[in-house]
Design a protein that fits this description.
The protein is mostly helical. The protein folds into 2 domains: 90 residues; 157 residues, no CATH class. The protein is 74% helix and 1% strand. It is built from 11 helices and 2 strands, in the order ααααααααββααα. Strands 1-2 form a two-stranded antiparallel sheet. Strand 1 and strand 2 form a beta hairpin. The termini are far apart.
């Protein structure tokens, strides 16, 4: 019963969004058609096309009010956006050039790849400039610019809707695992096995922070990265976790002779398991947690360890 109510509520929210978008598309067309224009025959309003667009928007709105599924509402929303693009064909001749340039500047201001607005300028700037002599071609160019603008607007909405849940999830996981690693290390003196738990949680924390710091930019659509981002998130966290564990093992083994103020990683671990004072646990614990977090944060750590460790194993024996 609760699941059914949840679906109905989600459907109504989607319906409100679709109807609001369709209303916006209608206003876009109506406001453009109401702009003052000259008495020139080339600037005459195409009333036949305007009537067709109005009827089509009314039909789409009626269907949206009675739609039974979210998929149907999404299709109707997109149909409304297509009709809204016809506002370009009702633009007065004197406004076509300014409208086109303003739309391209708006797209450029969204921080999208510079190749897109540059391509629009290269393709349509000349047609926009010749609006007075060839308004039909200029309005067609404005229609294409509007279409590109709507496409990027939809992508930015999808980008935000995709990235925000990931960012919230990664942030909560990072804070939770960091606190968990601190608690595990604190009780490691009583249960030594908790050292492994602390190292794993610290490495996972570093990996999550690394993923948050390298979220795909808006141009991710060009490579398809956004569509496969869920898989990439878990892959990068897994790689960072394994690299962190390998690095901690090599540091504890002494293969990588690194020390901080003459204190090695293995000595810091030992101080946490067999503390001599609460202060030593805090100081050494910071070192113990910092190292796996740094290793998990760096995606190149695994490659470094492989070249350092396996390279030595496979190096040819020296001739005597």
């Amino acid at each position: 019963m609760a699941n059914k109510k949840s679906k109905e509520r989600k459907l109504e929210e989607c319906r409100i969004e679709a109807l609001s978008s369709i209303t916006g598309d209608r206003m876009r067309v109506e406001l453009m058609a109401q702009r003052p224009r000259t008495d020139d025959s080339k600037d005459r309003l195409d009333t036949t096309l305007l009537q067709t667009v109005r009827e089509r928007l009314t039909e789409i709105e009626s269907k949206a009010k009675n739609a039974a599924t979210e998929a149907e509402l999404k299709d109707l929303l997109e149909d409304g956006e297509v009709q809204g693009l016809f506002a370009a064909y009702f633009c007065p001749v004197n406004d076509i050039h300014d409208e086109g340039i303003l739309a391209i500047d708006t797209i450029e201001g969204w921080g999208i790849p510079k190749s897109s607005p540059k391509r629009l300028r290269d393709l349509f700037s000349e047609k926009l400039k010749n609006a007075s002599s060839d308004p039909s071609s200029a309005r067609g160019a404005l229609h294409s610019i509007y279409a590109e603008m709507d496409a990027w607007g939809d992508f930015i909405d999808d980008y935000e809707n995709t990235m925000e849940p990931y960012m919230n999830w990664l942030f909560r996981c990072s804070v939770g695992m960091l606190l968990g690693s601190i608690l595990a290390l604190y009780f490691a003196s009583k249960v030594p096995f908790l050292v492994f738990v602390a190292l794993l949680l610290a490495g996972a924390t570093g990996s999550c922070v690394s993923v948050m710091g390298k979220m795909p930019a808006l141009d991710a659509s060009l490579s398809g990265e956004l569509d496969a981002y869920s898989r990439r998130v878990f892959t990068r966290i897994g790689v960072g976790l394994i690299a962190s564990l390998i690095g901690c093992g090599l540091l504890g083994w002494g293969v990588l002779p690194i020390s901080i103020e003459n204190v090695t990683f293995s000595e810091a671990l030992n101080a946490c398991v067999q503390p001599s004072s609460p202060f030593s646990v805090i100081v050494r614990g910071l070192v113990v947690l910092t190292v796996p977090m740094l290793l998990g944060f760096s995606e190149r750590a695994l490659t470094t360890f492989e070249s350092r460790f396996l390279g030595e194993l496979h190096s040819p024996a020296k001739k005597r």
